[in-house]
C-alpha cells in the first residue's frame, strides 16, 4: 500500500464535516484510483488504528479521529513554507535522530520532519536516555540546512527553545513554560521538554542540523518511569486537559521557521531578547556543573553566541559554554 494512497484517503476522511459520509466511489474519483484500492486503503488505515465506520449506501467516515501525529493530522494545522512540508511518520523508531541522520544522507530537503509515536532508544545529551512513551508525546527531529559555518550551529538549541515556548504559550495561554539554559523547558520547575541539536558538517559549512525536540504532552504521572516522576511533567498535567499533539507540532514548525530564518539573516541579536523573556534562568542564583568544575553565581544574561554569563561571588563574570545547571 503506497503511503500516498492511504494518506489521500485519510485526508479526505479528515476533511469531512461531522456526521457526513463519503462513498467508496467518491473517494475513488477524488484519489484517482480504483474502488478496490480504496477498500485496501481503508483496511490499512484500520490496521493502523483508525476507527472507520462503514455504512451501506452511505459510505465511510472516521468514527473517532484518533490522536495521531501523522502527516494528515499535522497538515490540517500547518502554515509553513518549508518546515513540516515533508514529514516522515513512524509508529515506532529507535530514535528520530538516527532516522533523520540517514535521511540527510539521502538528501532530505530543508525543513523535513521525522516524527514517531514512540521511541525505543530516545536519547538526550551525552548519551543519556530520553523516555518517549507511545502516543503521549511529541518525539520529533527537524532537519535544517542553513547556510552557516559550524560555529553558528549550537545556537539552534536556543532558537528551538524560544520557538517551543512561544508555540506552547500561543496555543495554551494558561501554562507558564520557561527555558532552563541551555536545552530544557520547565513548567513549575519540572521538565516538560528537552532539545538536542546535532550537526553534520564539512570543515567550514553546516551540511545539516538535526534539531531533536522531545515534549511530554499527554502523560499522567504514572506514565513516567518512577525515577522521573518527581522531576518530569507533561502539558496535560499542567493544563488539566488532553491536548492535540498535531496542532502543537504545526505551531512549533511555524515558530521554528520564523525564528530560524531570523537567525540565519540577522544573527542571534534579535532573538536574544525573546530568549531572555522566555528564560527562567536569567537573574537567578545557579550552580553550573561543567565537565571540569562546579561554579556558583548569578546568571546575568547570554551573549550573542548563546554563552551563559555567570557572575561569581567575587564579581568576576565567567562565560559558560556547556553545563548542567540548577537553581540554588
Ligand atoms: P538531557 O540530556 O538534557 O536530558 C536527559 C535527562 O532528562 C535524562 O537523564 C533524565 O534524567 C531526564 N529525562 C529523560 N526522559 C525524560 C522525559 N520524558 N521527561 C523529562 N525528563 C526526562 C534532553 O537531554 C534532550 C532530549 C531530546 C529528546 C528528543 S525526542 C526526539 C529526538 N530523538 C531523540 O532520540 N532525542 C530527541
Automatic annotation (TrEMBL):
Listed GO biological process terms: protein lipoylation; regulation of DNA-templated transcription
Keywords annotated in UniProt: ATP-binding, Biotin, DNA-binding, Ligase, Nucleotide-binding, Repressor, Transcription, Transcription regulation
GO CC term, one of those recorded: cytoplasm
Location of the DNA-binding region in this protein: 24-43
Catalytic activities: biotin + L-lysyl-[protein] + ATP = N(6)-biotinyl-L-lysyl-[protein] + AMP + diphosphate + H(+)
EC supergroup of this enzyme: ligase
Gene3D superfamilies, alphabetized: 2.30.30.100, Bira Bifunctional Protein, Domain 2, Winged helix-like DNA-binding domain superfamily/Winged helix DNA-binding domain
Molecular function GO labels: ATP binding; biotin--[biotin carboxyl-carrier protein] ligase activity; DNA binding; transferase activity
Pfam families, sorted: BPL_C (PF02237), BPL_LplA_LipB (PF03099), HTH_11 (PF08279)
Domain BPL/LPL catalytic span(s) in chain numbering: 72-264
EC annotation from Swiss-Prot or TrEMBL: 6.3.4.15
Binding site for biotin: 119, 123-125, 191
NCBIfam families xref list: birA_ligase
Function of the protein: Acts both as a biotin--[acetyl-CoA-carboxylase] ligase and a repressor.
Family: Belongs to the biotin--protein ligase family.
Protein's name in the database: Bifunctional ligase/repressor BirA
UniProt source species: Caryophanon tenue
Amino acid at each position: 500500500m503506497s503511503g500516498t494512497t492511504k494518506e489521500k484517503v485519510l485526508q479526505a476522511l479528515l476533511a469531512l464535516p461531522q456526521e457526513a459520509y463519503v462513498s467508496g466511489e467518491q473517494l475513488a474519483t477524488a484519489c484517482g484510483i480504483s474502488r478496490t484500492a480504496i477498500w485496501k486503503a481503508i483496511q490499512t488505515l484500520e490496521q493502523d488504528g483508525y476507527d472507520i465506520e462503514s455504512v451501506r449506501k452511505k459510505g465511510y467516515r472516521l468514527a473517532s479521529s484518533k490522536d495521531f501525529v501523522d502527516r494528515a493530522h499535522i497538515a490540517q494545522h500547518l502554515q509553513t513554507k518549508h518546515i513540516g512540508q515533508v514529514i516522515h511518520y513512524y509508529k515506532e523508531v529507535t530514535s528520530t535522530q538516527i532516522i533523520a541522520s540517514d535521511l540527510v544522507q539521502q538528501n532530505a530537503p530543508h525543513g523535513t520532519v521525522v516524527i514517531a509515536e514512540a521511541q525505543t532508544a530516545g536519547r538526550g545529551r551525552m548519551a543519556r536516555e530520553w523516555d518517549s512513551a507511545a502516543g503521549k508525546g511529541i518525539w520529533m527531529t527537524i532537519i535544517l540546512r542553513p547556510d552557516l559555518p559550524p560555529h553558528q550551529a549550537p545556537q539552534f538549541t536556543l532558537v528551538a527553545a524560544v520557538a517551543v515556548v512561544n508555540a506552547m504559550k500561543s496555543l495554551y495561554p494558561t501554562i507558564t513554560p520557561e527555558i532552563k539554559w541551555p536545552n530544557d523547558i520547565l513548567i513549575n520547575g519540572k521538565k516538560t521538554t528537552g532539545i538536542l541539536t546535532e550537526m553534520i558538517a564539512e570543515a567550514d559549512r553546516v551540511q545539516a542540523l538535526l534539531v531533536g525536540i522531545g515534549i511530554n504532552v499527554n502523560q499522567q504521572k504514572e506514565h513516567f518511569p518512577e525515577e522521573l516522576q518527581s522531576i518530569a511533567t507533561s502539558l496535560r498535567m499542567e493544563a488539566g486537559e488532553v491536548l492535540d499533539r498535531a496542532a502543537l507540532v504545526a505551531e512549533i514548525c511555524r515558530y521554528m521557521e520564523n525564528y530560524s530564518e531570523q537567525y540565519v539573516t540577522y544573527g542571534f541579536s534579535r532573538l536574544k531578547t525573546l530568549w531572555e523573556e522566555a528564560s527562567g534562568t536569567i537573574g537567578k542564583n545557579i550552580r553550573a556543573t561543567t565537565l571540569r568544575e562546579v561554579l556558583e553565581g548569578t546568571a546575568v544574561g547570554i551573549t550573542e553566541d548563546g554563552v551563559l554569563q555567570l557572575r561569581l561571588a567575587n564579581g568576576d563574570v565567567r562565560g559558560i559554554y556547556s553545563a548542567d545547571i540548577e537553581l540554588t
